[in-house]
Design a protein that fits this description.
The complex is a heterotrimer. Chain A is α/β, with parallel strands linked by helices. Chain A contains 17 helices and 10 strands. In chain A, the strands form 3 sheets. In chain A, strands 3-2-1-4 form a 4-stranded parallel β-sheet, with helices on both faces. Classes of the chains: A alpha/beta, B alpha/beta, C alpha+beta. The structure holds flavin mononucleotide, iron/sulfur cluster and FE2/S2 (inorganic) cluster.
């Protein structure tokens, strides 16, 4: 199937100026999925979602249906929606929140119905001021319309949705840090065990945490059925997925493409997608799934955009962001900038992450600015190894959450793929690209 | 009560079913531990010590430092896991010594040093620093870190007592966790994040918690230091003994450290049934008083009508003896009295009881200063231990503010409430720190206690409840109490003095009524002063003899042992002072008792001292009262003596001598023995050990508590007297050696072999003394049982124009311990009155202002503030906090009155 | 006891926020935003009052607030300009833009202009990489920036031409929540309980029907 003929599951309304309004939403089939879901038994709804292998779109790629089935039985669970999108170069949830809030709300209500939650919290990255306004307005309308609140569409099911603004901290995207933040605390990821919020989550109660994009798929799944969804993609990677494409491409932006059937090359080069690298320059490296992911070289451009396919090559699709670096890019600088990000965003709990991120950043900056030593390369690798023993992917963890062990990704990728470039910095005492 | 899941920093794995045991291996060795135990603790129990920084055995784990990583088997092979919060599981294989583990731990140490200033030579912690030790033990030889370190402004004062050097901080969070989790006062927290994260206070609120010193104790580096200790000693110059803090009656176990015969530091020892390693700041820092230059060092005798002159002991003793003998001869034994004794050890108190009752034959003896409760009630009610209180379904506090009076008992109860095991009912005329923890707080006006207990415990109808009692609170309190069972089997009453301005007999009678209604409830006394419980046990109370025996029932036994006892029951302190004032008594010995400052009726105390023919003071300081004595005998104080002390639950623990008393101070028992000799008696003892042997032999309550028992393994945490009828269980497990990280300074000293070895028990085996047997009571008189009722003075009808006075103690007061401790003295506040805003309006000072309180005994001018937590009709003024003696609430208090009325006047 | 730093309106909204959550502490961050809407930053007075509103010690409020980049415990300018320099923007000239901004505003990143109009900050990825390089002004996005368009932006801000689009610093959400299950806290509690009970009994019934 060519990209153009694939149904648009979560972006169908984005062409309209008024895509965020209830009027537009209703006129384009909005809340039909919910109406249908409400006629079904909650467990049937959950089963339908389980059947489509909807891999979580937040980064970890855990199937949504499986996650819901892990809820500790008994207490009424909470639904928490992860709209904290802060992974560098990821900007797809941002789009969904601002441009199609009703689709998200509908997805939330469907999920809440399936798991029988009574209250849902929509945690939205604080910097999304417009998104927060749009979602709040949409919620007001949805309450008014009877799609949220008491006795939704006369079904007897009631749900309260609370929009909760974040306040600027990347780590609050990690689901347990998000829960802490939602409880009004510092965003410190929780220690595990307990491993899953499904057992002990918000306020100690069983909780489902799902990403904005994950839930935005639900209305379509309800209306079109699981078969239509699994007809797209292949293997575990079913349906479509949003990819945020950025860096050295003609048309940076968010694209909904069919999973597995599309390759990195399609994404970067197809005219209706990325449109290629400007100035006829070459792809030097790409970051396949957010800055936590190890880099790929141009040799992997033909790899399909599938969760397992990418994992097999030692990286991840992660948050669905692809950064293209062309041959004018200084990879030392890129690695430094990414490490600097982790230094600024480490929550500070774990010694290796708190101290290691800063140490690595300072070494990289020293190399980039021309004061590096050859031995610094081994030092970098060894410090990385102390953060993530064996430097394997998925990483071995010495820390509470995976932020720490993700720090080495770009550094190890940089040194492994472009060792010479690092050495030139050392030898010349300056950045060759400056 | 805040919801614990919301307050806690992290969700922790729910503990497994109690009783279930799991088996796993550590380095190939098979280990069994209760399910749910954290690996770090289970391994330690099995003799494998896993390094750590952030984990503290008395706090919830947070897994922040990552020092405890070990390899643990899992479905996907071995992986590095933090031992501090991983619950052990059946079949788990743990490796703590592999190369991978060592690399991870070395890596963490190296990371910790990235921003650490390595200023060990100028750091207080140098020499006892776990970071330093571990780096020396495992760390990399040379730092690979060449970049610029993080810089912070040098030490900042978090409070008057605690300084913070942020550059040294390793972000283990122990201090902030202690403040939030244990003390419940989150005055310090982490600020910012990542590698800019620092511990700090909110700029407007200092770290004034009464428990702040604990954060210094548990800081694993030199980031937190205490002003009294800072730069006073190097760890290698210190040596230590184990002892018990006698600043209040809770009896926290401490390690007392000294250098060059000066006490330099107290560290809390981890005694599971008592303080669980915590101390309050007053207990921790009041050692400054011991070192004070103002200590009495020589005997003093007043020249006729003149000044106190230094004399020899021989002269002072014969002067004392002849004066007392003369009075006794001329006016009879009842004309002599002894007030005080809570400062004394058990042995000292016994010697003084024997001197007073056996030699002088006066029963006018009272260790309580009118601020306690009738001794026969305190000693005669079925006693609860602290652990029993913390495990009771319902704890009822009928006491002063425990955080002010018995701070670590407050911590223990707070922990119990926080853990959800206990619900608390507070009965008090005023809001206190307990109120926030309580399932229900019942407010009453002085005089209404009987009615309140009636509706609460005896099913009295709500109509009879005190006017204005919150019906919801009453219902909640009744519900909480009902949880404790019909007979009160799950109920513990914490019994002290809710107010010093309400007669103790009223409180005692209310307590008796409570126990009549719930006969299986137990009582934990909340008397606060030093070794007051030991003093009462030793007979320093009217009508009593050593061992919780009444004068009448013990008469034969002690006549035989001592050669004689007083003829009739004597007076308590209030009655003694009245008798002195009226000339019915002529002589008084003040045993460390400053009646002018400490007795809740200053005018009466003044009249009594003025009128007395003979005032003898045995003291460590020249207090306002001892300054008016005819003879002053300098006594040795805390950390200068051996012996035992007894806490509120009746736990007898050993005192360690760390320093030699200054000048010519003598032990109190020696003074008693020498005086006895000069009074024609003979105490028949030449040392503390003999005194204890005699106590064990004679006192019914102490039967079986031999020195061997006290000094053996079973006595490590002290022995609660009396021994139960069934033998104490023999300890089955050797107490764990000290975790060098739990309280760094203790371990360090121990490693140097300073005797006695802190916390390390003798190995179990042949030498272990036999487990204590149930005492044979043959021949001994029976122990007291509390009377069914006691006479309380009638409560007068309330005067509609007056307010009822409520008063109580603050931790930092005008007492000797605080005043003579340089660091604590500035912390004592000034007395300000609090009343309901409607009363302030009535008085014509809405919003607060200066007021005069007038009572039958005097007037007092204070600032008044609004506090709507107080019932209408009362005024609260803290006791012993006056800027000078005439501005203390003691001047308007009448200790003999049932309740104290005061009128408000604007100025 | 009310401390009275927050305006009556802000206080009322804060109390509404508290009522939205099962535990008051959850409202901490939303209330911090509210206090910033009033003062532009978190003043010590506001911190003390927030602590009282959500039942925490003030140290916990600063401790939490300082964890988050958007909450300021020091005064900031009328316009807080945050320039993203993270990887996607960096690849498209963000550092050059930041340098230009520093020159143009005559202030180093992290500082506030002498007249108190602008605070310039370097941001981590703002999730608008499709139009890199980007910046936010008081959390409103401006993308595809060049030095020239940045200058125009600054001029427009100075001249007040963007007042409709860019509210004063601290204003996060201009739309007020209207829906909601709750009218007053009592009703909320009852509603919540009824809903939970209904769900529980339904779950029980469905469990029964399946077994
Ligand atoms: C450091 C870190 C940052 C994360 N940030 C985000 C994020 O911004 N948005 C998100 O949806 N998930 C993020 N995640 C993943 C979440 O922890 C979680 O897996 C996800 O929200 C679950 O939703 P899903 O199953 O629908 O993907 C992050 C994870 C980590 C470790
Ligand atoms: S790995 Fe880093 S971000 Fe994650 S919990 Fe540890 S310190 Fe925080
Ligand atoms: S992480 Fe386990 S002791 Fe610190």
């Amino acid at each position: 199937m060519s990209p153009a003929s694939v149904p648009r599951i979560v972006t169908s309304r984005l062409g309209y100026e008024d895509s965020h309004t209830l009027e537009r939403y209703l006129s384009s089939g909005g809340y039909e999925g919910l109406r249908k879901a409400l006629t079904m038994h909650p467990e049937q709804v959950a089963a339908e979602v389980d059947a489509v292998s909807l891999l979580g779109r937040g980064g970890a790629g855990f199937p949504a249906g499986r996650k819901w089935s892990m809820l500790r039985k008994g207490p009424v669970p909470y639904l928490v929606v992860n709209g904290d999108e802060s992974e560098p170069a990821t900007f797809k949830d941002h789009l969904l929140i601002e441009r199609d809030p009703h689709q998200l709300i509908e997805g939330i209500v469907i999920c809440a119905y399936a798991i029988q939650a009574a209250q849902a919290f929509l945690y939205i990255r604080g910097e999304f001021a417009l998104g927060l306004e749009r979602v709040t307005a949409a919620l007001n309308d949805a309450y008014e319309h009877g799609a949220v609140g008491r006795d939704i569409f006369g079904s007897g099911f009631s749900l309260d949705v609370v929009v909760h603004p974040g306040a600027g901290a990347y780590i609050c995207g990690e689901e347990t840090a998000l829960l802490e933040s939602l409880e009004g605390k510092r965003g410190f990821p929780r220690i595990k065990p307990p491993y899953f919020p499904a057992a002990v989550g918000l306020f100690g109660e069983p909780t489902v945490v799902n990403n904005v994009e994950t839930l935005s798929n639900l209305p379509w799944v309800m209306v079109n059925g699981s078969a239509a969804f699994t007809a797209l993609g292949a293997g575990r990677s079913t349906g479509t997925r949003l990819f945020a494409l950025s860096g050295h491409v003609h048309n940076p932006g968010v694209y909904e493409v069919e999973m597995v059937k599309t390759t990195f090359r399609n994404l970067v080069f197809d005219a209706e997608l990325g449109g290629g690298v400007p100035g006829g320059r070459q792809v030097k490296a790409l970051i396949p799934g957010g800055v936590s992911a190890p880099w790929f070289g141009p040799d992997l451009l033909d790899l399909p955009l599938g969760q397992d396919e990418v994992a097999d090559k030692g990286s991840m699709l992660g948050s669905g962001s692809v950064v293209v670096m062309d041959d004018t890019t200084c990879t030392v600088r890129a690695a430094w900038r990414i490490t600097r990000f982790f230094r600024r965003e480490s929550c500070g709990q774990c010694t290796p992450c708190r101290e290691g991120s800063g140490w690595l950043e300072r070494i990289l900056l020293r190399i980039e600015s021309g004061s590096g030593r050859e031995s610094d390369l081994d030092l970098l690798m060894d410090v990385c190894d102390n953060l993530s023993p064996g430097l394997a992917w998925p990483p071995q963890q010495t820390t509470i959450c995976v932020l720490g062990p993700s720090i080495p990704s770009s550094i190890a990728s940089g040194i492994r793929m472009f060792r010479d470039e690092f050495l030139v910095h050392v030898k010349d005492g300056r950045c060759p690209y400056a | 009560m805040p919801d614990p899941t919301v307050v806690s920093h992290h969700a922790i794995a729910p503990r497994a079913e109690p009783g279930a045991a799991v088996t796993f291996t550590v380095d190939g060795k098979e280990v069994t531990a209760p399910a749910g135990t954290f690996l770090i603790a289970a391994a330690e129990e099995a003799g494998v010590y896993i390094p750590r920084f952030c984990y503290h055995p008395r706090m919830k784990p947070v897994g922040m430092c990552r020092m405890c990583l070990v390899e643990v088997s899992g479905p996907r092979g071995f992986s590095l896991q933090p031992a501090c919060y991983l619950p052990v599981a059946d079949g788990m294989e743990v490796v703590t010594t592999s190369d991978k583990v060592r690399k991870a731990q070395d890596g963490v140490l190296e990371f910790l040093l990235v921003n650490h200033p390595l200023d060990c030579p100028v750091c207080d912690k140098g020499g006892e620093c776990p970071l330093q030790d571990q780096v020396l033990a495992y760390g990399p030889g040379e730092s690979r870190f060449v970049e610029e370190k993080r810089h912070w402004a040098k030490p900042i004062a978090l409070s008057e007592l605690v300084l913070l050097d942020r550059e040294r901080c390793i972000q283990c969070g122990r201090c902030v966790r202690f403040a939030a989790e244990i003390a419940g006062e989150a005055q310090i927290d982490f600020l910012a994040r990542g590698d800019t994260m620092e511990v700090n206070i909110f700029e407007e609120v200092a770290f004034t918690s009464y428990f702040s010193g604990n954060t210094v104790q548990i800081c694993p580096v030199g980031a937190l230091t205490a002003t009294p200790y800072r730069f006073t000693a190097r760890p290698w110059d210190l040596d230590q003994v184990e002892s018990t803090c006698t600043t209040c009656a809770f009896g926290c176990r401490v390690a007392v450290q000294s250098s060059a015969n000066r006490v330099t530091r107290l560290l809390g020892m981890d005694s599971d049934p008592v303080n669980q390693s915590w101390l309050c700041d007053k207990g921790r820092f009041a050692y400054e008083a011991v070192n004070s230059d103002d200590r009495l060092t020589e005997p003093l005798v007043r020249a006729d009508g003149g000044d106190l002159d230094v004399v020899s002991w021989a002269e002072a003793l014969s002067e004392t003896a002849s004066r007392l003998a003369r009075v006794r001869e001329e006016h009879g034994p009842g004309s002599v009295g002894v007030i005080g004794g809570a400062r004394l050890s058990n042995e000292d108190a016994y010697a003084w009881a024997k001197l007073a009752k056996g030699v002088l034959r006066t029963d006018n003896v009272d260790a309580q200063l009118g601020d306690g409760l009738p001794a026969e009630v305190v000693l005669g009610l079925p006693r609860a231990t602290v652990d029993e209180a913390c495990q009771a379904r319902c704890v009822v506090t009928l006491s002063g503010d425990l955080r002010e009076e018995l701070p670590v008992l407050f911590l223990r109860l707070r922990g119990a409430v926080d853990a959800g095991t206990t619900s608390l009912v507070e009965i008090s005329p005023r809001p206190s720190e307990l109120s926030a923890l309580a399932a229900a707080s019942l407010r009453y006006r002085p005089g209404e206690l009987g009615a309140l207990v009636d509706v609460l415990a005896q099913g009295g109808s709500g109509d009879a409840a005190p006017r204005g009692l919150d019906a919801r609170a009453l219902a909640a309190a009744r519900a909480a109490l009902a949880e404790g069972g019909d007979q009160g089997e799950g109920v513990v009453l914490v019994l002290g003095r809710p107010s010093l301005a309400e007669h103790g007999a009223l409180v005692a009678e209310a307590a008796l009524a409570f126990v009549r209604a719930l006969p299986r409830a137990k009582v934990l006394p909340a008397l606060r002063r030093g070794n007051v419980m030991g003093a009462l046990d030793m007979g320093l109370a009217p009508g009593l003899l050593p061992g919780r025996v009444s004068l009448e029932e013990g008469r034969g036994w002690y006549e035989a042992a001592w050669g004689g006892v007083p003829e009739a029951a004597g007076r308590d302190t209030t009655a003694m002072l009245e008798a002195l004032a009226l000339g019915q008594m002529k002589a008084v010995v003040l045993l460390g008792a400053d009646v002018l400052g400490d007795f809740p009726d200053r005018r009466l105390a003044e009249r009594a001292l003025d009128a007395a023919d003979v005032v003898v003071a045995v003291d460590t300081f020249l207090s306002p009262s001892s300054a008016r004595a005819h003879v002053v005998l300098p006594a040795s104080g805390a950390h200068e003596r051996t012996g035992t002390t007894t806490n509120v639950e009746g736990r007898v623990t050993r005192l360690g001598q760390k320093v030699v008393a200054p000048g010519q101070c003598w032990s109190d028992w020696m003074i008693a023995a020498e005086l006895a000799a000069r009074l024609g008696g003979d105490l028949g003892v030449t040392g503390v050990a003999e005194l204890w042997d005699e106590i064990e032999r004679l006192a019914p309550s102490h039967a079986g508590v031999t020195r061997a028992v006290l000094e053996g393994n079973a006595g490590r945490d002290g022995i609660v007297v009396p021994l139960p009828a069934t033998p104490l269980p023999r300890p089955t497990r050797r107490p764990r050696p000290f975790d060098p990280m739990a309280t760094p300074g203790i371990e360090q000293v121990e490693r140097q072999g300073a005797p006695p070895r802190a916390g390390l028990a003798e190995p179990l085996g042949g030498e272990e003394p036999p487990a204590p047997l149930a005492p044979s009571t043959g021949g001994r008189p029976p122990m007291l049982r509390a009377p069914a009722h006691i006479d309380a003075p009638p409560v007068p009808r309330r005067d509609g124009y007056a307010l009822l006075l409520v008063s109580g103690r603050r931790l930092y007061d005008g007492g000797v311990a605080v005043e003579t401790s340089e660091s604590l003295a500035p912390l004592a506040g000034t007395a300000a009155a609090r009343l309901h805003s409607s009363e302030l309006e009535h008085a014509g000072v809405p919003g607060g202002g200066r007021l005069r309180l007038r009572s039958a005994t005097g007037t007092l001018v204070v600032d008044a503030h609004a506090d709507d937590g107080l019932p209408v009709g009362v005024v609260w003024v803290p006791f012993n906090l006056g800027a000078d003696s005439d501005s203390d609430v003691g001047v308007v208090l009448d200790a003999a009155a049932a309740v104290n009325d005061v009128r408000l006047e604007t100025l | 006891m009310t401390i009275g730093h927050l305006s009556d309106e802000a206080r009322r909204r804060a109390e509404e926020l508290v009522a939205l959550y099962p535990h008051p502490r959850s409202a901490l961050i939303p209330i911090c935003h509210l206090a910033q809407e009033q003062d532009g930053w978190l003043t010590p007075e506001a911190i003390a009052e927030i602590a009282e509103l959500v039942g925490l010690a003030p140290a916990e409020v600063v401790g939490t607030a300082t964890f988050y980049d958007m909450l300021h415990t020091e005064p900031v300018g009328r316009y807080v300009i945050t320039v993203c320099t993270n990887i996607a923007c960096m690849l498209r000239g963000a550092y050059e833009l930041l340098e230009h901004a520093e020159d143009r505003l005559e202030v180093r990143s992290g500082g506030t202009t002498a007249d108190g109009t602008f605070t310039l900050e370097e941001a981590e990825c703002l999730a608008d990489c499709g139009v890199a390089p980007v910046c936010q002004v008081n959390h409103r996005f401006f993308g595809n920036l060049s030095p020239a368009s940045f200058d125009t932006l600054v001029e427009d801000l100075r001249a007040g031409r963007l007042d409709g689009e860019v509210p004063p610093h601290g204003t996060l959400v201009r739309v007020r929540r209207q829906g909601g299950l709750r009218v007053d806290p009592e009703t909320v509690t009852t509603e919540r309980r009824q809903m939970a009970e209904a769900i529980a009994s339904r779950a029980e019934a469905s469990g029964d029907s399946q077994t």
